[in-house]
């Protein structure tokens, strides 16, 4: 693929929060910079010193808003791999990856309207009794879990935590329905129930809702990479303050390298998801940016991937700068609710049960919830044959019907999680209530069954995701870490050797 892109221009507004600490006068300034290096050099000129420490200090004491402009003059489109057109090849791949079925490519002329027209209107109807029954199931199953934790001997605590973590995942699904206007006909009721359902998870409801809506609008869509890398660079400098100087220098140098390649129009791999998600592939230059970052990515997308939603939760839902001005008011309200819950709920738990009680009754079930949050999300959208596409080649019907996976889990998990695993109809229309998803999926099977990706949750499926689906490649979709950096990919080799291969 070849593109010609004009050099990006950044408009950076730096507002002093602690000017004296930086050795610079207070006030505000506007900087025009055509690269991260020029931007960092500004901090040196502004402080009058020439050191990496001052660069870091400047970043740590300022807040930034970033606008990026670029023009794409040409882009190539990659067709679906021909092997997916062959039924026998798809059958072999399904067995290899741990799927029951890999769907054939959806024709380009099929639209979302064509698919929507096959769904009966009754599937979109809200049933108050069924909605509140879901709440009753989640509340009672969670209460039972807390009782089991309180009464279980130490050797049965993992089972109690597994049950309770699964039960509070049901809280998330209820809030999920509220966010999609699929719980009640009353918007205020949905906002209240959604906020309350998310509170035990320490999840701010409105920030999640805004980000999640964009995920549905642009599932598996890629945009130019430079925007992401610059944001990541700033984040790295702000968060990794304890790193040694040479590690900071690695990040600084990698930004210069990427800027130079971008300016020279060598941008074959410079794409990321239009919205950050928990299942996005790693970009090659991100992976190769520094040894420290490479190690973190290998662990995060390997053995720790079933808890990667914690990182997503932390980075994407508490920063006001990630939201539009019209969204800020509702975001602040949600954040206030979450912080109030933490300020009141956590001390009460600790007062009654001690720190060990907080770990037993809240932290461990919360980690169980994030296991399911991460697992459901990556299984829904991650497979070696599911592509990520640039906006000019992206097709909504293909992304939602062909690019989403239906996965069956043990029935007790599906009941406690309100059928969130029945995910393809949810991507066809997010207005379908969770209690109608199974019937909607049956309709899709009857009308579009040959195009669906379906599987049972099994070791081989998870092993494929954790050991194969790593670095983005435009032609192959994914390249495993151990193919690019075999000497550093021992966590991936460990998973390959120890994870069972049962399907």
TrEMBL record:
Alphabetized UniProt keyword annotations: Membrane, Transmembrane, Transmembrane helix
CDD domains: Delta12-FADS-like
Residues of the Fatty acid desaturase domain: 153-220, 275-451
Molecular functions per Gene Ontology: oxidoreductase activity
Domain of life the protein comes from: Eukaryota
Transmembrane segments annotated in the record for this chain: 131-150, 156-176, 225-243, 331-349
A matching Pfam family: FA_desaturase
Biological processes annotated in GO: lipid metabolic process
Family statement drawn from the similarity comment of this UniProt entry: Belongs to the fatty acid desaturase type 1 family.
This protein's name: Fatty acid desaturase domain-containing protein
Species of provenance: Zingiber officinale
């Amino acid at each position: 693929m070849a593109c010609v892109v004009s050099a990006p221009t950044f408009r950076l507004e730096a507002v002093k929060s602690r000017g004296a600490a930086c050795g610079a006068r207070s006030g505000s300034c506007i900087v025009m910079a055509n690269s991260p290096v020029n931007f960092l050099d500004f901090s040196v000129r502004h402080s009058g010193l020439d050191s990496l420490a001052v660069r870091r200090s400047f970043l740590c004491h300022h807040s930034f808003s970033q606008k990026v402009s670029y023009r794409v003059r040409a882009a190539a489109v990659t067709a679906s791999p021909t092997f997916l057109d062959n039924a026998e090849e798809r059958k072999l791949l399904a067995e290899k990856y741990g799927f029951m079925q890999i769907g054939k490519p959806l024709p380009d002329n099929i639209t979302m309207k064509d698919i929507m027209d096959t769904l009966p209107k009754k599937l979109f109807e809200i049933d108050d009794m069924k909605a509140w029954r879901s709440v009753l199931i989640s509340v009672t199953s969670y209460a039972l879990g807390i009782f089991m934790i309180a009464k279980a001997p130490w050797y049965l605590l993992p089972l109690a935590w597994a049950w309770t973590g699964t039960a509070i995942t049901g809280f998330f699904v209820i809030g999920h329905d509220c966010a999609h206007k699929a719980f009640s006909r009353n918007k205020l009721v949905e906002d209240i129930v959604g906020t309350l359902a998310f509170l035990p998870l320490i999840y701010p409801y409105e920030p999640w809702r805004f980000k999640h809506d964009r995920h549905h609008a642009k599932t598996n869509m890629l945009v130019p990479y430079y925007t992401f890398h610059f944001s990541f660079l700033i984040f790295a400098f702000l968060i990794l303050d304890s790193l040694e100087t040479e590690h900071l220098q690695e990040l600084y140098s990698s930004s210069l390298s990427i800027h130079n390649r971008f300016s020279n129009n060598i941008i074959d791999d410079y794409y990321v998801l239009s919205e950050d998600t928990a299942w996005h592939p790693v970009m090659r230059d991100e992976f190769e940016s520094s040894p420290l970052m490479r190690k973190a990515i290998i662990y995060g997308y390997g053995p720790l991937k079933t808890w990667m939603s914690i990182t997503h939760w932390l980075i994407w839902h508490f920063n006001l700068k990630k939201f539009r001005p019209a969204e800020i008011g509702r975001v602040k309200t949600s954040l206030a609710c979450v912080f109030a819950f933490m300020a009141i709920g956590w001390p009460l738990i600790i007062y009654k049960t001690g720190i060990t009680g907080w770990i037993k009754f809240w932290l461990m079930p919360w980690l169980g919830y994030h296991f399911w949050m991460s697992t459901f999300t990556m299984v829904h959208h991650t497979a070696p044959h599911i592509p990520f596409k640039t906006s000019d080649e992206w097709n909504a019907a293909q992304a939602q019907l062909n690019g989403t996976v239906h996965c069956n889990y043990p029935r007790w998990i599906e009941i406690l999680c309100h059928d969130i695993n029945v995910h393809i109809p949810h991507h066809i229309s997010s207005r379908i209530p969770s209690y109608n998803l199974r019937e909607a999926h049956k309709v899709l099977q009857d009308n579009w069954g040959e195009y669906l990706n379906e599987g049972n949750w099994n070791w081989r499926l998870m092993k494929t995701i954790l050991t194969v689906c790593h670095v983005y490649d435009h032609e192959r979709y994914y390249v495993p870490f151990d193919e690019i950096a075999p000497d550093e990919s021992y966590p991936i080799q460990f998973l390959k050797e120890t994870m069972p291969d049962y399907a």
